[in-house]
Amino acid sequence: QVQLVESGGGLVQPGGSLRLSCAASGNIFSIYTMGWYRQAPGKQRELVAVITSGGSTNYAVAVKGRFTISRDNAKNTMYLQMNSLKPEDTAVYYCNLDQTSWGTRYNYWGQGTQVTVSS
């Protein structure tokens, strides 16, 4: 089992910045992908950004150029630096970890952290 704990959410004005963290613990394999997803009220959960063990990244079009995903493999921790925040970035942000062993896929979610962008 894997546990994911997010932190760093809060209230910020438009144009401001926040940094989210996700600490993973438990039965973590050597190769795994981590990602940030978000869900706004009344909307489906959507991908924000993902990062592989090797450091390859992928971003949603809506956040590209404003958000930066990174990870510290030694600490099993992932980060999301969010700059130039907009009201439409308001959502609950979830951490995700995806790993595979002997053909079995294991997927885990954190509890989520609220990000509110408002003046």
Which H/E pattern describes the elements?
Answer: EEEEEEEEEEE
Structural class: mainly beta
Provide the helix percentage. under 10%
Number of helices: 0
Mean pLDDT: 95
Residue windows where pLDDT falls under 50 for at least 5 positions: none
N- and C-termini, Cα separation: 40 Å
Main sheet record: 7 strands, mixed
Strand tally is: 11
- Beta-strand percent range: over 45%
Shape: elongated
Evaluate the radius of gyration. 14 Å
3D architecture notes:
The structure is a single chain. With 119 residues, the protein is mainly β. The chain is built from no helices and 11 strands. The protein has strands at 2-7, 10-12, 18-26, 33-39, 46-51, 57-59, 67-72, 77-82, 91-101, 104-109, 113-117. Strands 2, 4, 5, 6, 9, 10 and 11 form a 7-stranded mixed sheet that branches. The chain has a 4-stranded antiparallel sheet with strand order 1-3-8-7, with no helix packed on it. The radius of gyration is 14 Å and the shape is elongated. The termini are far apart. The relative contact order is 0.32.
What distinguishing features does this structure have?
119 residues; mainly beta; seven-stranded mixed beta sheet; 11 strands; elongated
Please specify the SSE layout and strand pairing.
Layout lengths: L1 E6 L2 E3 L5 E9 L6 E7 L6 E6 L5 E3 L7 E6 L4 E6 L8 E11 L2 E6 L3 E5 L2
Parallel strand pairs: 2-11
Antiparallel strand pairs: 1-3, 3-8, 4-5, 4-9, 5-6, 7-8, 9-10, 9-11
